[in-house]
Amino acid sequence: MYQHKEQRNKFMGHIPPLLLEISRIGLGIAFFILALLDFATKPIIFEMMSKKNIPSPKLFFIGAIFWKTFSSIALIFNIFTVAAALLLSLYIFLANCVFNSFWLAPKSERYFQLVGFLTNIAISFGLLAVAAGYQFF
Question: Whole domain around residue 64: which residue ranges?
């Protein structure tokens, strides 16, 4: 038990708890807003899903809204934080592979798809860092 506490203190000495809290809440708020914005951009999202030949787009849309909404609320209010961060990271990774598949994009779009892909991967890794930080508490 003592060794685990010592490891935690070493780790948290590198990442001050306040920064971890700010990251958790900031990511949660950002994804909650994105979930709300999905309703405003619903036609665009369905058009993108149609282009990607996604089966049952309504089901996937509703599932994505719930997934993002509940995960972001959990992050904001520090409820099941590790699970919420991991689930949101998984969602971003899966959606990113479908919607930012730069390897399939025409050459003229490849750069912008790659930038979007790498940005979302970075956010996904940030969520993994939040999950790792809260496992030590």
Answer: 2-135
Whole-model pTM: value is: 0.82
Q: In the block, which residue shows the tokens 């070493």?
A: 10
How many Å apart are CA 40 and CA 71, to the nearest integer? 20
Task: Provide the H-helix boundaries in the chain.
Answer: 2-14, 17-40, 42-51, 57-76, 81-99, 107-135
Number of domains in the chain: 1
> At residue 78, does pLDDT exceed 60?
yes
The contacts of residue 27 (CB under 8 Å, 6+ apart) are: 72, 75, 85, 88, 123, 126, 127, 130
* Cβ–Cβ under 8 Å, residues 110 and 130: no
d(CA 84, CA 117): 21
For 27, phi then psi, to 5°, come to -65, -40
